[in-house]
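Quick one: sequence plus zinc ion SMILES, need structure tokens.
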Amino acid sequence: MKKNKRNKKEDAPLDNDDTLVDMFNERLRSHLRFCGDNGKIWLRENRMLLVHAQARGEMRREIIDSFGLDSARALFFRMGYASGVRDYEITRVSPDIITDVDAFRAGPLIYALEGGVKTTIKKLEIDSKAGKFYSEIRCEHSWEGQAHLRYYGESSEGVCWSLTGYASGYTSAVMGETILWREVGCVSKDMDYCTLIGKPIEEWEDAEEVMRLLKQSPIDVPSLGPEALTGKKVPPVIRIKRPSQLIGRSQIFVDAYKLLVQASTSQITVLLQGETGVGKEVFARLLHSGGARSKKPFVAVNCAAIPHDLVESELFGVEKGAYTGAQASRPGRFQRANGGTLFLDEISEMPLSAQVKLLRVLQEGEVERLGGTKTEKVDVRLVAASNIDLRPLIEEGKFRADLYYRVNVLQITIPPLREREFDVLIIAKKFLKRYSILYNKKLRGFTDKAKQALLDYPWPGNIRELQNIVERSALLVEDESYIEATHLFPLLSSDDDLGFGIDMSGGLTANQKKYGKEYCDAVLSGKLTMDQANTMLLETALEKAKGNLSAAGRLLGLTRAQLAYRLEKKKE
Ligand SMILES: [Zn+2]
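Reply:
Sure thing.
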């Protein structure tokens, strides 16, 4: 994991370069936000906690007394290590940091801001390119040392485990290799300050033993399970086995899934209702694969993507010469789905004439090709889907009532993503894993602020939009980094260098409103018609995607077919 190739600057002045310290401190502080009204503290993209040193000291004592010194040391070291790595992520984007020395010096500054210790760097040799590191630092006011003294008295060895963990995590992240710090002097040994030495792990004699500290070793406490409290055996949580495409534990989603499972065991005609991008086709495919027809074909048709005058020949087939352009006889989707399932998406877009024919096919189980004379038996399970309520269309005369009752025997409503509050992060993580593999990157996950942004966003394009946004972020972000809020929602970064011009207590929607407002003003003042705006949007997307319809569709949250259809419509 080699990275961070900065300029070599080994013998930089360490004590008299206050400009960098001031500049960095000021910038750091500007990234610290106290949002008391929604119970959050932010340091850049990280959610922070302000804890009582006294309470932390008492917790430390309880952990030592309950689990022993070794486990406690390992635990605090790892906690510190994780914080150090995270803090490096905070500093690495700062424009003030140019050299290895700068990168290293930012660590003690941020740790000091967090109330860790006051650090003086006594010696520093750093060259990340060559993998060379040696440093000695002096740390004052360690809360750990003081807590240890208070409860246990003087100690024969260093006790500032989260401090050494932090220094190790931070420096390892800077260097791109494991650097281990240890205390050679500690306030718990009756010193005025702690002295730490850091060097690459292989240069320590007992490297293997300390590596144990770095590894996760869950504390084994058999007596503290739920059984120990009640004396009863706790039954395992029963989970419905679900295919990997369908994840989520929001009740509203689980209910829809249960209905789907029930429906798949019968031949009942199902109408899937749900907004664009909620996964209607995924549901339809599962209905097919979970039932008796799973070995037979599944054929999907998006009614909105087919020009009206071609819907009938697409669905029912055509004989040669039935109309100009029908140069060969071919079967329709009904025949191709014979024995299996036909999925009709966006059925509301189907023209009335095709609706009449569809109804007849469903009633009689026979298809007649366009321009043909003989009928053909078909055995097809129909699954229809719509992103709008069909009932108003019946009143408007755009959808046949008899067809509606025929396709809507069982209706399953798939909830929009914004109503599945528990699922957004689970699904986002799944997509991130998928695209990390696809783009061959080791991404570390989402920052706290990115997670917050994912939860705050209303997801009008649902899962498909979430997927597109995660894919784009995974593609654009640097290897081995976190996905930040501004990677997900680039508009967030428009106000300042690091994207903190917006208060997260409602910033996203406010920002969207701001962008939306310009558009509304333009349309309402007659400077731009809605049609022109839409055309511009489609054309700009096409331009950006260099004419590639699929890619342009992804930018707009549409499928290739939907975009093609919309472009076609423009020409009419
Ligand atoms: Zn110490």
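Residues 25 and 196 are 23 Å apart (CA to CA). The pocket of zinc ion is lined by residues 142, 145, 158-160, 183, 186-188, 194 (CB under 6 Å).
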